[in-house]
Write a structure and sequence with these properties.
Elements: H1 2-15, H2 20-35, H3 43-52, H4 59-72, H5 75-87, H6 93-109, H7 112-129, H8 134-144, H9 147-150, H10 155-164, H11 168-196, H12 207-216, H13 218-232, H14 238-256, H15 262-295, H16 298-305, H17 311-326, H18 331-348, H19 353-367, H20 375-384, H21 388-411, H22 414-423
Helix pairs in contact: 1-2, 2-15, 3-15, 4-7, 4-14, 4-15, 5-6, 5-12, 6-7, 6-8, 6-11, 7-8, 7-20, 8-21, 10-11, 10-18, 10-19, 11-19, 11-21, 11-22, 13-14, 15-18, 16-18, 17-18, 17-19, 18-19, 19-21, 20-21
Domain TRAP C4-dicarboxylate transport system permease DctM subunit: 8-415
InterPro entries: DctM (IPR010656), TRAP_DctM (IPR004681)
Protein name: TRAP transporter large permease protein
């Protein structure tokens, strides 16, 4: 009775248009009051505070702030120009350059929507001029931006690692393998599309231009190199890397590229504070829900119910669960709410927690472009001034590609585990 009541109440709260954190927090408090054994009044607020009182969690707001700075500056434009100079002459070269630029951008920001806003307006007109259809261009940009969910320093991966007490560094390494496979699949599709529709190719850029574009993007390229090199070289923790990313992004955009002013930084920090506040409230609310589920032994019951199921079956269930939920709920909420439910069952089936992290993050990345409520769909509507139906049609072929990648990541664990095993 308590769990059906909790789910029904949460559904009602969502239906009336309340924020997701209220749909988690309100029903949980009510369920505690009605069904849980009496506890001191201060326990639940203390649990909320404990949920966000973690040093590792600081990495998330810091990476969000760094991503907002990067999205407003010149880094995205310089990355696109550099990558295009190297592969623009290839069949589908501009589309491939877009994919690579989004991957590099993701390696700096960890936030998928940021790439749509930063890189989208730069490459979209060029794709149209070169002969790509409007639908392909929109779908490519909106989908490629989700690479930031897989490639470190992904905020979604940090959330998963914190929820499961898994090494953030190991989960990051697993994401590199997953992100590489996804990038390759997208590049192959871009090549085949360009070949089928005989898309024009640019002239091969001389090495002098390539060298010029590389020098112009050198400070942009330095950010992911320093972040990942510092983490795996032992120079600093992921949280310290996030702080460094903020300082580095500010220095590059304000002092070197001179795209942003100090007043711009203040406005960006105000916008970031809103996003960060919502996310931390969500984390605090999810902590209370997890506490109730633990007291009610729900994860143990799920594990008991799925006892005897193979790893193949458990992974299939996890994929179906996250795919359906991802159509309606944002990625952060999915990770916070659903991960504690299935984590024990996955471990009992022998699934490596690092591999599980890649599977879950790949699912929530797919949810970003899945109708009806994928977040990137609505960002695409705003960025490209397209209708909802137009954006949905544009992403459908790419959703098929993402499903293929998801199956590969799910059932070929070495894609995720190779780098953690070699480097770890």
């Amino acid at each position: 009775m308590p769990i059906p009541f909790l789910i029904a109440t949460a559904f009602v709260v969502l239906i009336i248009g309340s924020p997701i954190f209220l749909a988690i927090l309100g029903p949980t408090f009510i369920t505690f009051e009605l069904f849980a054994p009496p506890i001191p009044a201060m326990v639940l607020p203390q649990r909320m505070v404990d949920g966000v009182n973690k040093f590792s969690l600081l990495a998330i707001p810091l990476f969000i702030f760094a991503a907002d700075i990067i999205a407003r500056g010149q880094i995205g434009a310089r990355l696109v120009a550099m990558v295009e100079s190297f592969c623009g002459h290839l069949r589908g070269g501009l589309a491939i350059a877009t994919i690579i630029a989004c991957a590099l951008f993701g390696a700096m920001s960890g936030i998928g929507p940021a790439a749509v806003v930063s890189i989208g307006p730069i490459v979209y007109p060029a794709l149209i001029r070169q002969g790509y259809s409007r639908g392909f261009a929109v779908g490519l940009i909106v989908t490629s931006s989700t690479l930031a969910m897989l490639i470190p320093p992904s905020v979604a991966m940090i959330l998963y690692a914190l929820q499961t007490n898994t090494s953030i560094g190991a989960v990051f390494l697993a994401g590199l393998g997953s992100g590489f496979v996804f990038s390759v699949v997208l590049c192959i599709y871009a090549y085949l599309y360009a070949r089928r529709y005989n898309i024009a190719m640019d002239e091969k850029a001389p090495w002098s231009l390539r060298w010029k574009r590389t020098k112009e993007a050198a400070f942009a390229l330095g950010l992911p190199v320093i972040i990942l090199g510092g983490i795996y070289g032992g120079a600093f923790t992921p949280t310290e890397a996030a702080a460094f990313a903020c300082v580095y992004a500010m220095m590059v955009e304000v002092l070197i590229y001179r795209q942003l002013s100090f007043k711009d930084l203040f406005n960006i920090s105000s916008a970031s504070a809103g996003t960060i506040s919502v996310l931390l409230i969500l984390v605090a609310s999810g902590t209370v829900l997890t506490y109730y589920l633990t007291l009610s032994q729900i994860p143990q019951q799920v594990t008991s119910t799925l006892a005897g199921a193979s790893a193949f079956e458990i992974l299939l269930i996890i994929n179906v669960l996250f795919l359906i939920a991802g159509m309606f709920v944002d990625p952060n909420s999915l990770i916070i709410v659903l991960t504690p439910l299935i984590y024990r069952a996955a471990l009992a089936a022998g699934i490596d927690p690092v591999h599980l992290g890649s599977v879950i993050v790949a699912n929530v990345a797919l949810g970003m472009v899945s109708p009806p409520f994928g977040l990137n769909l609505f960002i695409g509507i705003t960025t490209f001034r397209a209708s909802y139906l137009e954006v949905v049609k544009a992403v459908l072929p790419f959703i098929g590609l993402m499903l293929i990648v998801l199956l590969l990541i799910t059932y070929i664990p070495q894609i995720s585990l190779f780098l953690p095993q070699v480097i770890g």
